[in-house]
C-alpha cells in the first residue's frame, strides 16, 4: 500500500485507481487547463490545441493514462466519505470540526523527478484516522462508525431546530 513521506498508509495501492476524472476535463472530453492557462505550460497547451484540446487520458482509446498527463489534478468535491458514505453536515455560524476531511493520495517524494499530481478524496474523520493509523483501505465495504453517526445526527437535530418556525408572538411572549 502507498505511504506518505512520514510512512503512514494512504489506504490505496494505486492512487489513480480512485480517480473518476481530471478536474480540468470538460464534459465534451477537452482539456480546460490548456485552454485557460496556456502560459503555465506552453508546450503542453500547444500540443493540446493542435489536437483540438482533446484529452488523451479521457479518450477510451487514448494513448495516455491519468498518470501520463503533466497537468492532471483530481480533487474530490463530493461531500460524502468515499469509504463509508457519511455525508457532511455543516452548521452555519458554528466552529464545530467538520465531519469530512481531505485525504491526499499522491505525495511528492524528495527523490522523485516527474511531477506529483494532486489526488484528493473526502473521508470522514473516523475513516481518515483508521486509514492512517491501521490497515484500513479506502475501498473497504464499511458503514459509518457509530460515533460518526451520532455526531451527524446531533448536527441534523440542530439544523432542524434552527429551521423550526415560531411565531413572533410566541418568541416574545415573555417580554
What does this structure look like?
With 175 residues, this protein is of the alpha+beta class. It has a domain at 76-175. It has helices spanning 32-36, 42-50, 125-133, 146-163, 168-171, and strands spanning 73-75, 100-104, 118-124. The protein has a three-stranded mixed beta sheet. It is extended and about 75 Å long. The mean pLDDT is 87.
Please outline the helices and strands:
Blueprint: H1 32-36, H2 42-50, E1 73-75, E2 100-104, E3 118-124, H3 125-133, H4 146-163, H5 168-171
Which descriptors would you attach to this protein?
175 residues, alpha+beta, 5 helices
Q: What is the compact description of this entry?
A:
The chain has a domain at 76-175. The protein has helices at residues 32-36, 42-50, 125-133, 146-163, 168-171; strands at residues 73-75, 100-104, 118-124.
Helix content: 25-40%
Q: Structural class, please?
A: alpha+beta
Number of helices: 5
> Strand-and-helix sequence, N→C?
HHEEEHHH
Shape: extended
Annotation, overall tally of beta strands: 3
The average pLDDT score comes to 87
Specify the biggest β-sheet: 3 strands, mixed
Amino acid at each position: 500500500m502507498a505511504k506518505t513521506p512520514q510512512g503512514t498508509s494512504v489506504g490505496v495501492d494505486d492512487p489513480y485507481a480512485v480517480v473518476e476524472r481530471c478536474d480540468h476535463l470538460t464534459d465534451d472530453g477537452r482539456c480546460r487547463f490548456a485552454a485557460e492557462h496556456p502560459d503555465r505550460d506552453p508546450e503542453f497547451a500547444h500540443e493540446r490545441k493542435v489536437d483540438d484540446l482533446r484529452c488523451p487520458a479521457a479518450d477510451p482509446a487514448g494513448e495516455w493514462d491519468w498518470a501520463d498527463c503533466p497537468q492532471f489534478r483530481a480533487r474530490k468535491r463530493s461531500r460524502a466519505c468515499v469509504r463509508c458514505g457519511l455525508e457532511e453536515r455543516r452548521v452555519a455560524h458554528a466552529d464545530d470540526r467538520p465531519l469530512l476531511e481531505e485525504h491526499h493520495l499522491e505525495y511528492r517524494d524528495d527523490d522523485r523527478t516527474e511531477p506529483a499530481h494532486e489526488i484528493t478524496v473526502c473521508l470522514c474523520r473516523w475513516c481518515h484516522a483508521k486509514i492512517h493509523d491501521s490497515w484500513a483501505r479506502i475501498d473497504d465495504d464499511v458503514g459509518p462508525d457509530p460515533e460518526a453517526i451520532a455526531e451527524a445526527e446531533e448536527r441534523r437535530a440542530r439544523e432542524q431546530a434552527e429551521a423550526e418556525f415560531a411565531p413572533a408572538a410566541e418568541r416574545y411572549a415573555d417580554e
